[in-house]
Amino acid sequence: MFIQELSDCIGLSLTALSKLEYGKTKLKLSTLRLLSQALNVSIAYLGCFESLPEYSFGQIKQGSPLSTG
């Protein structure tokens, strides 16, 4: 999938995707879900979560591809 196709599929601009890629903006859970659906992979496959406690959706794992820190 090309970046433009991904942009169109999830409804984010190319600029917004670029900011996510380079860690210049925080990733929302809703965007993460859209990315995982568009790429046909699980959220866990994207490597963003260290743990998924019952009371939350987990914390962004440092050093993951979508980590902002």
TrEMBL record:
<protein>
    <submittedName>
        <fullName>Helix-turn-helix domain-containing protein</fullName>
    </submittedName>
</protein>
<dbReference type="InterPro" id="IPR001387">
    <property type="entry name" value="Cro/C1-type_HTH"/>
</dbReference>
<dbReference type="InterPro" id="IPR010982">
    <property type="entry name" value="Lambda_DNA-bd_dom_sf"/>
</dbReference>
<dbReference type="Pfam" id="PF01381">
    <property type="entry name" value="HTH_3"/>
</dbReference>
<feature type="domain" description="HTH cro/C1-type">
    <location>
        <begin position="4"/>
        <end position="46"/>
    </location>
</feature>
